[in-house]
Design a protein that fits this description.
The complex is a heterodimer. Chain A is an all-alpha fold. Chain A has one domain: MetI-like fold (Orthogonal Bundle), CATH 1.10.3720. Helix content of chain A is 76%, strand content 0%. Chain A is built from 12 helices and no strands. A 6-stranded mixed β-sheet of chain B has the order 6-7-8-3-9-10, with helices on both faces. In chain B, strands 13-17-14-15-16 form a 5-stranded antiparallel β-sheet, with no helix packed on it. The radius of gyration of chain B is 24 Å and the shape is globular. The two termini of chain B are 29 Å apart. The chains are: A mainly alpha, B alpha+beta. At the A-B interface, helix 8 and helix 9 of A face strand 6 and helix 2 of B.
């Protein structure tokens, strides 16, 4: 059937309109994204760029305004042994706390996911450290660690041990801080593992049992791979936390003794807001951001390939 | 000699017996269907045989070996789950050989068996895919392949077709039966669908409330139902049960729809009114109502002339009657 001429004309017009449509919808999309883009830009992206620019300028003094110094701030940083001490401490802190808290979180999740009496109570108990503010946690552990009458020393005394200044000694201070972190983080990560474990249908376990898989084989071949997306999520969070959370260091050691518990962010705080050295602090901040960005990227690229998302 | 013997099996769930003193035997190479409505204990019975549940009492013997207390992996069984229970992160090939791998079968043999089974169930082109990329029917085939590749002598199936559409279900019925016979597997197959039981089974065990209602061949269940429940459950449409009044009230008469005839109305009180007409192509199911109660269904060959609201008389040959005791529900005379 032939169409009347005016109808064909109208069809042509609607084709032209359709070509315009995607642009209109993208405007709407941008409008919908606007509030979060504005918030993110104001409080994250713009400050990052500003910090990057500031890191190439000297610290403004009363009689000498800020001026461009190129990479001087970075050179000073590299020459500063405290920076290296803080960076090393931070790496030890991350490598020590992340695997430990993930392993303990997984073990606790597997435990409270099994059929056992009073598991609701147990789940709550494991989660309690997460609910507490870090300041409170630090105070509790401060008491545990107090030489002489702290909990640890009291227990040690029962067995005829001697007093130990856990937080006051170069050898034990960082370790003591790391224990607090693991204690606080593991319960939080457990919740994610527990949720993921409950997503795994029970008949997978039954099918595997009939196929002849032991409990360990089932964990290795099925449970662990199915938990990979959660593990990746936890890993990213744990890495960021390892560089970000310093509340307990404030409360318990103040970075001491002799920088034994000084980590990157704490160092930035001291340089920036105690010594008011803006140039050095911004350079340190850029380094911290670069480390975190690279770590997150690496995790997604390396682990992302092996992760199965349902 | 019996391949699978189930003896006085009992399973209590917190005081309620899901399976209550169930005994039966399945011959070697036979397909036995556990049939019944949901909650009748058929799936629990299967899970007890599989070793996924511990029986409260009773024994399970396979080929003379008491497996009642053995762990699932040592029972030499394979199982297909209603949900298929495929591992979502593994490919089709990895799913199929999962059991062979954990049982440390050599790689060369694994590959050979995988290829053979994949061809058997028509999955050769899909081996590299993940279950999420397959249709329901293909997933079903993966589950089937995983059960077959283990080459266990006994295969258990828990409502394997219930997630498929009607057409696919019919195809798979034929296919599973053919595979079972070709491979000589002894199979216990759980379903609530009496059509699956009728078409596939060598032996049907009809269960209700945790006990066996009737066990026999599909023909025995259809032609001589042992109870009123069996009469209603097996066959479609369900058997008409006509309750007599007066002195004969203790007896319920059952007549299948195809054994009934429609006659012109006689004008007396025995006439019924046509309440429904279901045209199926080859025949028509006419529903008639006489007073209250369930409508009586009559299968009429071809296209019935009856119209809703018309009156008609019902007739049947007394030889086609099944008689049941109303109080116990049990069949009164021996089967035809």
């Amino acid at each position: 059937m032939r169409r009347p001429a005016h109808e064909e004309e109208r069809a042509g017009k609607s084709v032209r309109l359709a070509r315009l449509l995607p642009r209109r919808t993208s405007v709407e999309a941008w409008l919908l994204l606007l509030p979060s883009v504005v918030l993110l830009a104001t409080f994250a992206h713009v400050p990052i760029v500003a910090t990057l620019i500031d890191s190439f300028y000297s610290t403004p003094r009363r009689n000498r305004p800020s001026h461009f110094v190129g990479l001087d701030n970075y050179q000073d940083m590299i020459a500063d042994p405290i920076f290296w001490k803080a960076l090393t401490n931070n790496l030890i802190y991350a490598l020590g706390t992340i695997p430990a808290s993930i392993a303990i979180a997984l073990a606790m999740a597997l435990f409270v996911n099994s059929r056992l009496p009073g598991r609701a109570l147990l789940r709550m108990a494991y989660f309690t450290p997460t609910v507490l503010p870090m300041i409170a946690v630090a105070n509790i552990w401060l008491f545990f660690y107090t030489p002489g009458y702290g909990l640890l020393d009291q227990i040690a005394a029962l067995f005829g041990g001697h007093t130990t200044n856990w937080l006051g000694s170069q050898q034990t201070a960082l370790g003591a801080i790391m224990v607090v972190t693991v204690w606080k983080e593991a319960g939080f990560f457990m919740i994610f593992y527990l949720a993921a474990l409950q997503q795994i249908p029970p008949d997978l376990r039954e099918a595997a049992a009939i196929e002849g898989a032991s409990r360990f084989a089932f964990f290795r071949r099925v449970t662990w791979p199915l938990l990979m997306p959660v593990t990746l999520f936890i890993l990213v969070n744990a890495v960021i936390n390892a560089f970000r959370t310093i509340d307990h260091i404030f409360m318990m050691t103040g970075g001491g003794p002799d920088n034994a518990t000084n980590v990157l962010l704490f160092h930035i705080y001291e340089v920036g807001f105690k010594f008011w050295d803006q140039g050095a602090a911004t350079a340190l901040t850029i380094v911290l951001l670069a480390i975190l960005g690279l770590l997150a990227l690496a995790q997604f690229v390396i682990a992302g390939r092996k992760v199965h998302y349902q | 000699m019996s391949r699978i013997e189930v003896q006085h099996l009992v399973k209590d769930f917190g005081g309620r017996a899901a399976v209550n003193d169930v005994s039966f035997a399945v011959e070697r190479g036979a397909l036995c269907v556990l049939l019944g409505p949901s909650g009748c204990g058929k799936s629990t019975t299967l899970r007890l045989i599989a070793g996924l549940e511990e029986p409260t009492a009773g024994r399970i013997v396979i080929e003379g070996r008491d497996i009642t207390r053995l762990p699932a992996k040592d029972r030499r069984i394979a199982m297909v789950f209603q949900s298929y229970a495929l591992f979502p992160h593994l490919t089709v090939a990895q799913n199929i050989v999962f059991g062979l791998e954990v049982r440390r079968v050599a790689r060369a043999e694994r590959e050979a068996r995988l290829r053979k089974v994949a061809e058997l169930v028509g999955l050769s082109d899909y081996l590299a895919r993940k279950p999420g990329q397959l249709s329901g029917g293909q997933r079903q085939r993966v589950a089937l392949a995983r059960a077959i590749v283990s080459e266990q002598p006994v295969c258990l199936m828990d409502e394997p077709l219930s997630n498929l559409d009607a057409k696919l279900r019919q195809e798979m019925r034929v296919e599973i039966r053919a595979l079972q016979q070709r491979l000589g597997m002894t199979m216990i197959y759980v379903t609530h669908d009496q059509v699956e039981a009728m078409t596939m089974a060598d032996q049907v065990i009809l269960m209700k409330d945790g006990v066996i209602e009737q066990a026999g061949t599909p023909a025995e269940l259809y032609q001589a139902p042992a109870t009123m429940f069996a009469a209603r459950f097996v066959g479609a449409p369900a058997m008409n049960l006509i309750e007599a009044a007066g002195a004969a009230a203790a007896v319920v008469t059952g007549v299948r729809a195809e054994d009934m005839r429609l006659l012109p109305p006689t004008g007396n009180g025995a006439d019924a009114e046509v309440a429904s007409v279901e045209y199926l192509g080859a025949d028509t199911i006419v529903g008639l109502r006489r007073g209250g109660g369930e409508p009586i269904l009559v299968r009429v060959p071809g296209r019935a002339a009856a119209r809703i609201g018309e009156r008609a008389a019902l007739a049947w040959d007394p030889a086609h009657e099944h008689r049941f005791d109303r109080a116990s529900g049990r069949r009164l005379e021996p089967g035809r």
